[in-house]
Design brief:
Number of helices: 14
Helix content: 25-40%
Largest sheet: 9 strands, mixed
Strand order of the largest sheet: 2-1-15-22-14-4-13-12-11
CATH class of the largest domain: Alpha Beta
CATH topology of the largest domain: Dipeptide-binding Protein, domain 3
Number of domains: 3
Distance between the termini: 50 Å
CATH architecture of the largest domain: Roll
Number of strands: 24
Radius of gyration: 23 Å
Shape: globular
Length: 521
């Protein structure tokens, strides 16, 4: 399976992921988030009506209304309310959406989707199995800019409608949890016959809002769908603004051009909300982004597990948390996916032991090794974490330096292959997403027979208990001899008017679900 740059960006912190549900919790309003959350922030009942303007990181002229290839937070936030997914995740667990079940065959080589009754498209026509078959076919269509990751698991060309609301989907490999696979991929359903999503063209979804206007890289205006199967929205209109600069997003709220600014940096949050009636909100502990370094095991010295363990013992996690998160986070236990189902939360945080680290480096023949830590501020604080970790590694005799590149060059394959470590963020994605996508890049992957067996079982088994054991085994391998150093988990922060309510985390706090957004009564 080949990982495209778009999928890589979705995998990294700002553009992918899933887990906790519920309203976003509010952090302190004027002096930064270190004082803790304000109880009930953003969870008050919403009145009907009004226009909510929300600023997200955009994708410039490349923004799209196509939910199958969306990757910027603006694209994704907009797409979540125009198009519905087959399954989503709430509280890190699979929840039904357009599909109410995905029943695997005994051999896990196919499954049957059963769709929700009574769902209509924005044009009033009913959702049917033919729409899902069309959507699956589009995943591998030659007209698509790249194939979906799902095509590595599903034999989409052989999917067939077996009834008005049932679809049989054969698989290329055993899939024991098809609902989890589809939820992790955040697969939206598009209407049969839809082949393009050009600006100005009518766009039909099943979501709580309909597209009224769209200017790529600028804004989208969405209007309420009163026939929505999940209940009518609260707001009359949503305006999703594309604003790449985080300071500009915050200024839009402070200046009255927006009511909500997504994903503001820790330094900006530390200065406070900036005016009465505004507050800084954190998305909660289970939506924190994991910050870490992925070691390139295709290069020496990290082909040796002793060298990998030496770096895990050398990192000063608390120093990184203090200097990078500024109080908005906590230390990590070397595993990505905190908040996701099956996450090994009981895995202890490894303590710092410089003497042991030096001994392991000597045993691995890696004393004085030159190391390059590749980074870009694709996620706020990555560059500073790379520079600080380089300092910490020099304390055990390694010749380490940070290699800072532009975000557009972050996932360049040649650049990754030549680097020894990659500063890497990951949100609370399902473990299948974290392990399967990251393995697609040789320089990010970790080849280990015990890990491969655990992942094969986790993906294939129909038994939830066996699946849980397999995921715990996979994570145990990673903490014993893997190539991750997850030193901390940072809060996902937003700046908002205190009256904004109903914003829910489904896929990710960086592009929350806006279907119930509105203003408190």
């Amino acid at each position: 399976m080949t990982l495209t740059r778009r999928e890589a960006l979705r995998l990294a912190g700002a553009t992918a992921g899933l887990a906790a549900g519920g309203g976003l919790l509010a952090a302190c309003g004027s002096s930064g988030g270190s004082e803790g959350p304000v109880r009930g922030g953003g969870s008050a009942p919403a009145r009907r009506g009004g226009t909510v303007r929300l600023a997200f990181t955009g994708g410039g002229a490349g923004e799209t209304l196509d939910p199958l290839i969306a990757y910027s937070p603006a694209d994704l936030a907009r797409g979540l309310v125009v198009f519905d997914r087959l399954f989503t995740l709430v509280g890190g667990r699979v929840a039904p959406a357009l599909a109410v079940s995905a029943r695997p065959a005994a051999d896990a080589r196919s499954f049957v989707l059963t769709l929700r009754q009574g769902v209509t498209w924005h044009d009033g026509t009913p959702l049917t199995s033919a729409d899902v078959v069309h959507t699956l076919a589009m995943l591998a269509s030659p007209s698509r800019p790249h194939p979906s990751e799902l095509t590595g698991f599903l034999d989409v060309a052989k999917a067939e409608a077996t009834g008005d609301l049932t679809v049989k989907v054969p698989t290329k490999r055993p899939v024991g949890d098809p609902a989890g696979l589809l939820a992790g991929a955040s697969l939206a359903v598009i209407k049969k016959g839809t082949t393009s999503f050009r600006p100005g063209q009518a766009v039909v979804g099943t979501g709580p809002f309909k597209v009224a206007a769209f200017a790529p890289g600028r804004e989208a205006r969405l209007v309420r769908n009163d026939r929505y199967w999940g209940g009518p929205p609260n707001a009359d209109t949503l305006v999703v603004l594309s604003v790449d600069d985080p300071q500009a997003r915050a200024n839009a709220v402070r200046g009255g051009q927006a009511e909500y600014a997504s994903d503001i940096p820790f330094t900006l949050a530390k200065t406070g909300a900036g005016a009465s009636g505004l507050e800084i909100r954190g998305a909660g502990e289970n939506q924190r982004t994991g910050y870490g370094f992925v070691l390139n095991t295709t290069r020496k010295p990290f082909s040796d597990p002793r060298a990998r363990m030496a770096l895990r013992l050398a990192v000063d996690r608390q120093a990184l948390v203090d200097r990078v998160f500024l109080g908005y986070g906590t230390v990590g236990n070397d595993l990505f996916g905190h908040g996701a189902q099956y996450f090994a939360a009981q895995t202890p945080v490894l303590g710092r032991d410089l003497a042991r680290a030096r001994t392991l480096l000597k045993e691995a023949g890696a004393e004085g090794a030159k190391l390059t830590i590749r980074s870009a501020d694709y996620e706020s604080g990555l560059n500073s974490s790379a520079e600080l970790f380089a300092e910490q590694l020099r304390a055990i005799g390694l010749d380490a330096k940070a290699q800072i590149v532009a975000p557009t060059a972050y996932f360049d394959a040649d650049g990754l292959a030549a680097a020894d470590l990659l500063a890497f963020p990951l949100g609370p994605h399902p473990l299948s997403v974290i392990f399967n996508r990251s393995a697609a890049y040789p320089s990010l992957a970790f080849k280990d027979p015990d890990l491969d067996r655990a992942l094969t079982t986790a993906n294939a088994t129909n038994d939830p208990k066996e699946r849980e054991r397999a995921w715990l085994d996979a994570q145990r391998v990673m903490t014993v001899r893997g190539n991750w150093i997850v030193w901390g988990r940072g809060d996902v922060l937003s700046l908002t008017r205190a009256t904004v309510t109903g914003i829910e985390v489904r896929d990710s706090a960086k592009y929350p679900f806006l279907g119930k957004a509105g203003f408190s009564a």
